[in-house]
Amino acid sequence: MIRAAGAVVIRDGHVLVVHRPRYDDWSMPKGKVERNEVTPVTAQREVLEETAVAARLDWPLRTTRHRVGDRKKQVWWWRASVRAEAEIRPPDSEVDKVEWWPIDRASKQLSYPDEQELLGRALAAPTDGGLVLVLRHAKAVKRSVWEDAEPERPLNKQGEREAGDRRDLMAAYGIDQIWTSPWRRCWQTVAPYAVTTGLPVRSVPGLSEDHVGDVAGIEKIMAEAMALARGGARVVVCGHRPLLDDMLRAIGAVPRPLRPGESVAVHVAGANHYQQHDLS
């Protein structure tokens, strides 16, 4: 299975399209998932590489599936908006033209019917939504070899690399609020993004392992995060494995096992729009 991701980037009644000389087609920016990369990061990276547009992922769309030779290919898509745009993207053998097409033109002249249909879905998607990103802290030093206080147990080398990867994930979503357990390994997981953006980090004692089983307390924390998201905020909430199921249930998400550094994104808009997207 070939895994790929892309984005329907919309601005002022226009959609971002690229021409690929190898195929002589007009399509929306997309590309293959790289090793250890999650699909939202792929989508943002491919938009930037192919168009010089820095995009923010706003709402998940459906996946598309087709065959490439004898292999299956699956592409994850998002509606996206523009954060920044370079003046020129030099043409190369992969993409030789980057254009903003009016919606009416794109809906008829994109080379692939499934992308024409995706454009329609993107136009119907909420434009004022927010999200809550529930994140398990990255890989930590084993309890069995840590001799100091449990709240001070840090990330190991693998976890430090994972924290850097999660910085890219938070950037793809345009996270604007950072909440975390006060324990060291959670702080270290969100620190790279906080340093890059200059955003403050909110320490939430109720997210630490001292509060395992405090369902009411967790529900209160997550209800506040969801209320902010329904108003358009993008909140990451970093916690520990024993609390994750309660954190997810509190925002209406279906719990699933999360390995260190994995997350679940819950997209919301107003009172009626809700979508869960699991990230491995």
TrEMBL record:
Keywords: Hydrolase. Gene3D superfamilies: Nucleoside Triphosphate Pyrophosphohydrolase, Phosphoglycerate mutase-like. GO terms for biological process: AMP biosynthetic process; ATP biosynthetic process. The keyword Lipid biosynthesis does not apply. Residues 1-123 form the Nudix hydrolase domain. One of its GO terms (molecular function) is bis(5'-nucleosyl)-tetraphosphatase (asymmetrical) activity. SUPFAM superfamilies: Nudix, Phosphoglycerate mutase-like. PANTHER family: BIS(5'-NUCLEOSYL)-TETRAPHOSPHATASE [ASYMMETRICAL], DIADENOSINE 5,5-P1,P4-TETRAPHOSPHATE PYROPHOSPHOHYDROLASE MUTT. This is DNA mismatch repair protein MutT. It comes from Parenemella sanctibonifatiensis. The lineage of its organism: Bacteria, Bacillati, Actinomycetota, Actinomycetes, Propionibacteriales.
